[in-house]
Write a structure and sequence with these properties.
This protein is α+β, with helices and mostly antiparallel strands. It contains 6 helices and 9 strands. The longest helix has 21 residues. The N and C termini lie far apart (56 Å). It binds flavin mononucleotide (FMN). The site of flavin mononucleotide (FMN) has 9 residues, from strand 8.
């Protein structure tokens, strides 16, 4: 009896611990902002990032929604072939890594270690306070060209949000794909297409 009680308490402690690490984001701000033509004029890559200044949770919610959030009941800010929605977004920060759940606007923890070294081969990326991995699922979208097209749409949405909010960014194809996939807990059908550094 006592042993069962101890096991139950341990299970509760473990589940409370994992729940505590998820982040409920504020509702994204979907109106206003810089006019599109101005944001397009300012879109560019940057490769120097502040080691301390980071986006707050409101900015993160806005950025992720712009990147690949729902703007209708079951449709995204990006187009996907046959509406397959094969893209997932992973957020890599010094505290760990999270999977963005666009429906519930929550960051679900997938790793509680600092895995930034795996997020890029360039030094600025390994030290950045925010990297976003754009991941495609082959099971949902077997066509690599279409998968790359969707990832590119996410990439450009991030670029435009950053340009409009005077935040720096660069998308990257250089990262340790196998090690990062393992650290993010990806399955064999999931492929990291790009990792994008974001910050000041
Ligand atoms: C698919 C793709 C992969 C890229 N990979 C890298 C990369 O690994 N490292 C990097 O510093 N920039 C990378 N870039 C950014 C390009 O170098 C950059 O977009 C290009 O030099 C043009 O500069 P701009 O974005 O300021 O117009 C990549 C861009 C794309 C579209």
């Amino acid at each position: 009896m006592r042993r069962n009680m101890l096991i139950l308490l341990a299970v509760i402690a473990i589940s409370l611990n994992s729940c505590a690490s998820d982040i409920v984001l504020p509702q994204p701000q979907k109106t206003g902002g810089m006019p599109l033509m101005e944001a397009l004029s300012k879109r560019k890559s940057t490769r120097e990032f502040d080691a301390e200044k980071r986006l707050n949770n409101q900015q993160l919610a806005d950025l992720l929604w712009a990147a690949c959030g729902f703007n209708r009941e079951d449709k995204l800010t990006i187009p996907t072939a046959l509406n397959k929605q094969e893209v997932s977004i992973y957020v890599i920060v010094p505290e760990g890594a999270y999977l963005y759940d666009a429906k519930s606007n929550v960051l679900n923890v997938v790793n509680t270690k600092d895995i930034r070294e795996l997020a890029g081969k360039q030094e600025f990326a390994q030290k950045a306070l925010l990297n976003i991995a754009i991941v495609s699922d082959k099971e949902k979208m077997p066509n690599d060209l279409y998968a790359g097209t969707s990832a590119g749409a996410v990439m450009q949405n991030i670029y435009l949000w950053c340009a409009a909010n005077e935040v720096g960014t660069v998308t990257r194809g250089s990262f340790d794909e196998d090690a990062l996939a393992e650290a993010l807990g990806l399955n064999e059908n999931q492929r990291i297409i790009l990792v994008q550094t974001v910050g000041y």
